Amino acid sequence: MPSYLPAQIIAWALLLAWLAICVIFDLRSRQVPAFLTVLPLILAAVWQLIQGGWQLVVLVALLVLISDLPQAKWRIPVACASTVLGLCIAGSPSIVYAMLVVFAVWALWEIGASGGADAKIIIALVLFFADGLLFIPIVLVGGVQGLVGLVARRKTIPYTVAIAVGTVAWLWMISYSG
């Protein structure tokens, strides 16, 4: 059984409580209030800066700015170029994976395939942990969730459920991986 510092246990508990609150809002109203997504995104960016992951924070900031370009047709190409430049200066493989996930999630939001709250929550998680591999269990749970919705003939199921369950699965995996 791995041993954890009290600060790590508190951080994970706060993170899981935040995700649970986001899920409750999403299930009840199909919306997650901005304060539940923007504030954690900013806090995760500050945390990542403190940890030395400035490259990831710069990419997120660039993508936010690119979202406001007046010519929508230029957003994806400019974001691609920015991400490629970011990958060139990434300091570690985990930052590379994190950058790729941040770009993918941003692009899904940009083309309308994902909600803004879902994108901000995932990007905040990736910023906090600086590990894009977190996205794998989220996507897997999302796939299962989609199949359940298909069988149950529900048009949509809030993706915050998949984000929360996938994050719990990822935390469990990393806690026992050595």
UniProtKB/TrEMBL annotation:
Keywords tagged on the record: Membrane, Transmembrane, Transmembrane helix
Domain of life: Bacteria
UniProt key word Transmembrane: yes
Transmembrane feature ranges: 6-25, 84-109, 121-144, 156-175
Gene3D superfamilies the record matches: 1.20.120.1220
Name of the protein described by the UniProt record: Prepilin type IV endopeptidase peptidase domain-containing protein
Natural source organism: Bellilinea caldifistulae
